[in-house]
Q: What sequence folds into this?
């Protein structure tokens, strides 16, 4: 998943981004509301973690602008403003959740997973296809009763594909979701990681799950 962290406290922003990265997410960081709006307009995010009290444009004004543009990305407010009125205002403006500082990083990660589950229509952290299960909380992948060990980036790719199973994903869409703006890798990175993933989840199984759609990209599905 790709997450935007809009928080003007740079140390806190850095801590949250490091935790997201350690969890296998792609994280972009920005430090004021106008910069956050530019990021949101330039990329597709799965979740936006948004401070309320930011310079240039506060979080409430930013979410108003984002929602007026038809962007429905889940937003988690991260703020020291803990009054009931503020929480109501944030939720009424279209936020999915409201986390009060100080907070537990583990709880924040759980809330990220929860808003993604809701937006994807999945009731749990476990996604299934054929004889494979993917647990996005424990990062555990099992196929045919056998646990499969994946790197953080391989898991991120598989998670993105299984949350969009049956949907043909272009290389550009995959790249934009799996890597952040700081990525300086090769242009064939998506193809390389698809090969890695195929070796681990498809080799040795009669039913292949990762398919190439010529001229369009890749899709995770049963059958051809």
A:
């Amino acid at each position: 998943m790709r997450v935007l962290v809009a928080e003007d406290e740079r140390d806190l922003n850095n801590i949250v981004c490091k935790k997201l990265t350690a969890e296998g997410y792609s994280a972009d960081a920005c430090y004021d509301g106008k910069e956050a709006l530019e990021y949101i307009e330039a990329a597709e995010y799965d979740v936006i973690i948004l401070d309320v009290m930011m310079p240039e444009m506060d979080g409430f004004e930013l979410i108003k602008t984002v929602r007026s543009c038809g962007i429905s990305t889940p937003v988690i407010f991260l703020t020291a403003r803990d009054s009931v009125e503020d929480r109501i205002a944030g939720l009424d403006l279209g936020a999915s959740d409201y986390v009060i500082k100080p907070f537990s990083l583990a709880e924040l990660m759980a809330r990220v997973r929860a808003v993604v589950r809701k937006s994807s229509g999945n009731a749990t952290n476990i996604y299934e296809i054929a004889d494979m299960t993917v647990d996005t909380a424990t990062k555990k992948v099992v196929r045919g009763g056998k646990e499969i060990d994946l790197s953080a980036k391989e898991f991120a790719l598989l998670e993105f594909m299984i949350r969009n199973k049956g949907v043909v994903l272009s290389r550009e869409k995959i790249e934009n979701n799996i890597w952040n703006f700081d990525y300086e890798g090769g242009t064939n990175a998506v193809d390389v990681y698809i090969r890695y993933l195929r070796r681990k989840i498809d080799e040795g199984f009669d039913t292949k799950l990762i398919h190439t759609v010529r001229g369009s990209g890749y899709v995770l599905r049963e059958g051809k």
